[in-house]
Design a protein that fits this description.
Length: about 190
């Protein structure tokens, strides 16, 4: 039997806190605006795989966010950039699993969305309309990854023309900085 004691802070999982890329301590039980950072959102979403990572190549939530942003009309673009921001802290959970654990997961997700949308003054009332573009992006992604249709590749050529950076993290962070320039990035 292993009786090793781990004293490193990374093993303190009973506190309800996680440490982010920028070093912030974020509470899963009670997230606060000062715990949220656009840099952490961009980093978390760029590292988080869509479709539970069950694809030939890595495809991130940041790339999905860029596609939703591209498809959405101008007035919904700020919301498009943050529509999955909670997943930077909570992971992109596949819909079937999210439905199974909804009783526990949904209140936590809602708390993060409320804090993020409130901090960056994005209207949650428009989420239903944005869902049209979110679903459209998901269909384009599924058609590409599951059926070999190339429409998504064209969209990313067009996105790269608008945001000429070579990594999704840089592209998303650039758009977040542009859209939310009056906020602290750390």
């Amino acid at each position: 039997m292993n009786t090793t004691t781990f004293n490193h802070p990374v093993h303190e999982t009973n506190t309800g806190y996680m440490e982010t890329f920028t070093g912030k301590q974020v509470s899963y039980l009670n997230p606060k605006p000062d715990q949220i950072s656009l840099v952490d959102i961009a980093k978390g979403l760029s590292n988080e795989a869509r479709f539970a990572g069950q694809l030939v190549d890595h495809y991130s939530v940041a790339q999905h966010t860029l596609l939703v942003w591209y498809l959405a009309p101008a007035r919904l673009k700020p919301l498009a950039l943050l529509h999955d921001a909670a997943e930077a802290y909570l992971k992109d959970i596949p819909k079937p699993l999210k439905n199974i654990i909804a009783e526990v997961y949904k209140p936590i997700e809602l708390a993060f969305e409320t804090v993020i949308f409130s901090k960056y003054k994005v209207s949650v009332e428009d989420m239903e309309e944005l869902k049209i573009y979110d679903n459209q992006a998901t269909e384009i992604e599924a058609d590409y990854f599951r059926r070999g249709k190339l429409a998504m590749i064209q969209k990313f050529y067009e996105i790269n023309e608008k945001v000429p950076l070579n990594r999704p993290y840089d592209q998303l962070l650039s758009l977040l900085r542009s859209e939310f320039s009056t906020y602290d990035f750390n």
